[in-house]
Amino acid sequence: MRNFTNQRLTTEAQRSRREFGLPLLCALRVLCGKIVSVERKPNGTLLIVAHGSTVNPDSSAPTLAHAAEIRGRKIFAKVECAFWKEEPSLRDALFLFDPESIREVYVVPNFISEGYFTQTVVPRELELSGRITTRSNGQIWRYCEPVGSHSLMTELLLKRARDVAPDVDPAETSLLIVAHGTDLNENSAVAAKREVEKIRALGKYAAVLNVYMEEAPLVSDWRKLTETPNVVVVPFFISDGLHSYEDIPRLLGIRLPSRRREPNGRLGSRTSLKEIFRQNPYVIDGRNLFYAPSIGTDPGVVDIIIEQANAAAKS
Fold first, then answer.
1. pTM for the full predicted model
2. What is the pLDDT of residue 29?
3. Is 7 helix (H, G, I), strand (E, B) or coil?
4. Which residues contact 86 (CB under 8 A, 6 or more apart)?
């Protein structure tokens, strides 16, 4: 479980390659302590689709970073991104791949859960007829499950909680997974509840709770909801933005530093905004509060994206 991201092949993995005779088109990775094979796709490309934003440049940053990392691993012939609210747009993606050299396109939604965008917007804009769409030119598009629905997301949340509070005793710590809440984000709330139930069943933390910004149980009530001396808070979002930089910290009772307004109207610089995650722990009412960046910014999401493409290839 501790060997989750960006690791070289272990001696055991190398031995497994010899023993099982994995082909050269396979790479071995260690995910959550398990050795898995990743089949290289020299005639296939990966398209990561995400929401994006016209006002928050950090919205697309994790998606672009994950794409760059996957590109460097040379698993796919190409790795591209497309967004609903940024360029290149989802419609632009229809013209990104030469059907002569690219025979398959794996579309992975970088979203926390199934919902309106993954079930309606993305299929409509990419002209997908189902999980597998064969174009008139013979090119096959495989529509994968969203990142947040993969079983490895549970391990990623645990890893992030350890990273932000490495020295605390989990038995004296409450873990809070924060989602948006409200009917507009119902599926993300369901996804958060699912992850909380899975982590709670492991018995690692004194308490594991799903909390929300706009519906009960409210993240602002964390003092009433928890009793432990340590509290770890992980936002269950794909990217950082106004919610993670300001709204959630304010609801938690973290005092935000004053920032001058820039010429473009935004408050502070990107660097100063990220400082909110670097001041842990926050001592509030005699208790230690650890605040993490959004889960979608974790480098481990790279492996989940690849795994979702692998699963679609086998379907």
1. 0.83
2. 53
3. coil
4. 52, 53, 54, 59, 60
